[in-house]
Structures are given as C-alpha cells and as structure tokens.
UniProtKB/TrEMBL annotation:
This is Mannitol 2-dehydrogenase. Residues 37-286 form the Mannitol dehydrogenase N-terminal domain. One of its GO terms (molecular function) is oxidoreductase activity, acting on the CH-OH group of donors, NAD or NADP as acceptor. InterPro entries: 6-PGluconate_DH-like_C_sf, 6PGD_dom2, Mannitol_DH, Mannitol_DH/Oxidoreductase, Mannitol_DH_C, Mannitol_DH_N, NAD(P)-bd_dom_sf. Keywords: NAD, Oxidoreductase. Pfam families: Mannitol_dh (PF01232), Mannitol_dh_C (PF08125). Belongs to the mannitol dehydrogenase family. UxuB subfamily.
Length: 499
C-alpha cells in the first residue's frame, strides 16, 4: 500500500511506483527478473542522466534484462549516495528541464549500489562474476591517475602506491579492476569490457593504457592477458547535468509529488557515440538513441573542442565578471558574441564529422548554454581545471599556434583560467579553487601575476611542454592576461570583439 509523507508526497520506493505513474513515467518492467550485467564505477549525476537512462529505455522495451546496473562508489564520501539510493532500491527521479517544460521519469536500471570502501569483497565478486560483461566508468578526468600535461601514468598517486603494495586489498580504480580481472582469469572467464564514459579524448584508449601501465608494475602476466583479450571502446558522451541541489529535491516533491533523496536534473539534449567493440556482448543502446561507429575520434574532438572548451570560457570569464549561472552569462550579448567567436576560431581544427552539420551543432550549443531552467553554475565549471584545460583548450592553442593563425579568443579563454587561479575576484572576493593542484597553481599564479610564463613553465603537468614554446600564442596570452588584470573580463571582451 502506498504511504504518503506528511507533506502529501510519496517516498520513492518500488511499492509506490503504481501510485506515482499518474504523474511521471515509471518502470513497467519486472525489476526482480533483472541481472547485473554492468558494474558502473562512479555513480554521479551524469551517469544517472546518461548511461543508466539509455538502459532504462531498453528495459522499457523488454530488452537488455541481463544488463542491469550494479553501481559502485569508490570514495569514502560516496556513503551519501549509498544512503540515498539503497533505501530507494536504486530508483531515482530524472527531470529533463527546458526553459518551458519539465519532464520526469523514475529510472529503474540500477538494481544495486555498493560502497567499495565498506564492502570491497562484494564489489570484487560482482566484477569477477560471469554475469558481469561490462565495467563502465565515470570517475572524472582526474580519476585516471595520469599526468594531464604529458599523458604519462602517475605511479606516485596515493591510490596507485597503495594498490601496488596491497593487490588483494585495493582502494583505487586500477586495484579493483586488476584484482577482479585476476579472479576472472583464474576462473576461466574472459575479461569484462571496460567502457569509459568520461570527458577525455580517446577515453577508452586512456583507460587501457593506464590499466596496462599499472599491471606492468603489479602483475605483468595479467597485463599480457588483458592486452590480448580485453576491450576498451572509446565513446563520446554529452549531456549538461549540474549537481543536485535541495531546490531540485523540492522541485521533484512539489511538482511530481515524490520524496527522492537524490534526484537528477538535466537538459533535454543527450548524445552518445560509441566504438562498437564489445566481445562479451552489449545492450542494443542504439535502440535508445546511441550511435555506434568504428571511429569515435571526430565526434570526440567536436565535443571537447567546442562544447567543453566553451564551458571553460563561460565558467572562468563569466565567474570573473560576477555571473553565478551559465544562462546569465549567455544572456549577456557580449559573452554570447564571444562564445560564438571562440567556437568559430577553433572550428577549423575540428574537421569533418560524419553526419554532423557543425554550424547547426554550434547553434545548438548556444541554445543549450542559454537554457534558463537547468541552472548550471559557473562555479561548477571552474572546478578541476588542471584536468580539464589540458584536454579541452590547450590542444587547440598548440594547434592554432602551429598553423600560424589568429588565436586571440582561445588565448582569452586560457587567460581567464590563469586570472581565476590568482584567487581574488574583480571585486576583491575570494575565488574558490576546487582542484588537487590548487595550492601549487595558486602560488604560481600569484608569483607570476600578469606574466603567464611563470604558470606555463612551472606546471608542465597541466600546460605541457609545447605550449610554453609557442611564442606567438604566448604573446597573445600575455596581452589577454594583462588586460584581465587591468580592466576586468567584460571590458577585455568588449575590446577584443571591437564592441
């Protein structure tokens, strides 16, 4: 029997789904018949708005019943997600928000959630079991334990150091993958497919390279077996999904009558392009809107160089100009012109993308950034820059410099990041720096001031080795950074655009 809360809302539980069906789409498939064919590591908002939704759509069609998700949290702080999802049997509300409408559905694709620090053996056995055919990842760019500037594996990462010394008691990503694969080999099972869904160019290749580098140090024979038999498809993922807020919880309660401890709110747009390399089988994600291809690279480059790089400009320059939300930045005609100009500048680097009209794609990006309902924050876009800049902006800067073309807008995007690192806003307010290299970067920024070379040369992990030698680009970067310090973001944009 449905049990209402005092406020007239229903708790999100399997028993209450029939009563909720009048207000939202709910799972109509029998969740008790599902088997966990996918173990997903890093259950955040994006995974639940993306991969889990695609699977939920397949389950609603009566397909993929052997590919339900067992979610895994690797971090001690993931207890909050566990405490939210376990009482709800893995159910959560997904709200797609546009400037005009809100559309909600309860997603039932996740049938189990495990907290690795509390139950490591259970996690290892889920991955080592024959039912598991895919281990997917959303562990953020920084979760892959490699030098963002050079691409080299980082054997000094604390998780790596621990797991190399304690292979049977892992705490990090590669330690868990290695021990689960070791058990599968001992049982005569093929490796699971590792599917990275993070915003990293060639994400599957990066996952493969870093795992093999780890195994080379821990268990070379296992590494040889994985290299010969494992699969690491690349994929491009796209959906703007801000972190859940109390306002989102209130929205779900007030609009749809659901008490949900951790709903997800996102934009309506979603895209998933996947390299078709799944030797152990896969769900027919194409039936839910995904695109399978032999080569993901053009789609990756398009998304990272245009969407993600534009987000960098919106986040840091918009924040410096005093804007809280992304849509507020885009409502400023000056910033909209700048973002359009920046995307035009880097478009020649993207090349041809099969089936994509780049002009229409860029227009869609402006529309998506301007969505007033999603309420994505500039503060979110300013987090973990040391992992994002080397993937989204610096490659374009290096390529533009090599071509000898104009790169004034790319220089200004990067200058916005360098100016933000200094830590004091244009009005003297403190700028929070959420980044594992934050203290070091801030010290370099304050030492160098308006001269970017201190940062470029002092942190090759972020800026690489080529960018500091790109003379013409560094000159443009220096001019942009000096202008930001002297005049502020809006005045600098106005001068650059001739407005």
């Amino acid at each position: 029997m449905s049990q209402f809360n005092a406020g007239g809302t229903l708790p999100l539980t399997p028993e209450n789904l029939p009563a909720l069906a009048a207000a939202v789409t709910v799972p109509t498939y029998d969740r008790s018949r599902l088997r966990p064919g996918i173990v997903h590591i890093g259950v955040g908002a994006f995974h639940r708005a993306h991969e889990a939704l695609y699977l939920d759509k397949l389950l609603a069609l009566g397909e993929a019943q052997d590919y339900a998700i067992c979610g895994v949290g690797l971090l001690p702080g993931d207890t909050a997600m566990r405490d939210a999802l376990v009482p709800q049997a893995g159910l959560y509300t997904l709200v797609e928000r546009s400037s005009g409408t809100d559309d909600a559905r309860v997603v039932g694709a996740m049938i189990e959630y495990l907290h690795a620090p509390s139950e490591p053996e259970t996690v290892l056995e889920r991955m080592a079991d024959a039912t598991c055919r895919i281990v997917s990842l959303t562990v953020t760019e920084g979760g892959y334990c490699f030098n963002q500037g050079t691409g080299a594996f980082d054997p000094a990462h604390p998780d790596v150091v621990h797991d190399l010394a304690h292979p049977l008691a892992p705490v990090g990503l590669y330690g868990f993958l290695a021990e689960a694969l070791r058990r599968r080999r001992a049982r005569g099972l093929a490796p699971f497919t590792v599917l990275s869904c993070d915003n990293i160019e060639h994400n599957g290749t990066v996952a493969r390279t870093m795992l093999l580098a780890f195994l080379e140090r821990q268990d070379p024979d296992l590494g040889t077996w994985v290299a010969a038999n494992g699969a690491f498809p690349n994929c491009m993922v796209d959906r703007i999904t801000p972190a859940t807020t109390d306002a989102d919880r209130a929205l779900v309660a007030d609009t749809f009558g659901i008490t949900d401890a951790w709903p997800v709110v996102c934009e309506p747009f979603t895209q998933w392009v996947i390299e078709d390399d799944f030797p152990q089988g896969r769900p027919a994600f194409e039936r839910a809107g995904a695109l399978f291809t032999a080569d993901v690279k053009p789609y990756e480059k398009m998304k990272l160089r245009l969407l993600n790089a534009a987000h960098i400009g919106i986040g840091y320059l918009g924040n410096l100009a005093g804007y809280t939300y992304v849509h507020e930045v885009m409502a400023d005609p000056l910033f909209e012109r700048f973002i359009r100009a920046f995307m035009e500048e880097v478009t020649p680097l993207v090349g041809q993308v099969p089936g994509i009209d780049l002009a229409a794609y860029k227009a869609t990006l402006v529309e998506r950034f301007s969505n007033t309902a999603v309420r994505d924050t500039t503060a979110r876009l300013c987090q973990h820059g040391s992992a994002r800049l080397p993937k989204f902006v610096i490659p374009s800067a290096v390529e533009l410099s090599a071509r000898g073309g104009d790169s004034r807008y790319t220089a200004l995007v990067l200058a916005g990041y360098l100016r933000y690192l200094q830590g004091d806003g244009e009005g003297g307010e403190a700028l929070p720096l959420v980044d594992p290299l934050g203290e070091r970067l801030r010290a370099l920024a304050r030492s160098g001031g308006a001269d970017p070379r201190t940062l470029l040369e002092g942190c090759p992990e972020v800026f690489g080795l080529e960018l500091p030698r790109a003379g013409a680009f560094v000159e443009q970067l220096t001019a942009a950074l000096r202008a930001l310090y002297a005049d502020g973001a809006s005045a600098t944009l106005r001068r650059q655009l001739g407005a």
